[in-house]
Every structure is written in C-alpha cells, then in structure tokens.
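Progress against Task 2.4 (sequence-to-structure conversion) is shown through the following example record, which the project officer requested during the mid-term review.
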Amino acid sequence: MKRTFIIILEIALLVVVLRSSFVQYWLGDIQESLSNWMTEIAQTAERQELAALRDRVRPNIAAMNDYQKDYVMDMLSSRTKMEHFQLYYCINKDKNPFVYGATLLYLCSEIGRTSFD
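Structure tokens generated for the chain above:
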C-alpha cells in the first residue's frame, strides 16, 4: 500500500514538473536543435551532389561573361533553384536571358544527369 502511494505520488510530481513552462521551453529547444541537426545531416548528400555538379560545369562555362558565370553558379547553389531552372528552361523551353544555345543544352544535360533521391 505504501509503495503504491509513493509511485502515484512520483508520477503526479513528474507530470507537474514536465508541464511547467521552463521544462516545456527547454524540451522545445532540444527538439529544435535535434531537428536542425537532422536536417543538416539529410542535406549533406544534396550539397555534395551540387558541389560535384558545379565542378563538372565550371570548365565549360569559363568562356562566359562574369555575370553569366555568377548566374549559373547561383542557380547551382541549391536544389530548388536548379529544379526551377530545369523546369522552366530545360523542360518548358522558356527563353533564358543569361544562358542559351549550346551552353543551355549542356547545362540541361548535366542537370539531368544528377541523381537526387
């Protein structure tokens, strides 16, 4: 009987402590930190693939103007920008004021070769 009463009292105390605002704030910070950490780990492969793509493309865009090179490197800086470029300029054949002709075809083929999961 005494043991049961102590266990119930411990459970009630644990519930009160866990519902306090300080503990909720602390647990929220831990959850946010872990979430950010797991996101970084998940994006590591994506960053490596983008870096490899930039390295493959860099020699072939060397003859471009500086603003064109900056545009291409910015476009290859994130998966979202690259997919946007691919959708509009490779798939839908929209006109791009910075990249056109053989360079556009080359970029589209290199982007098509990337293997994102």
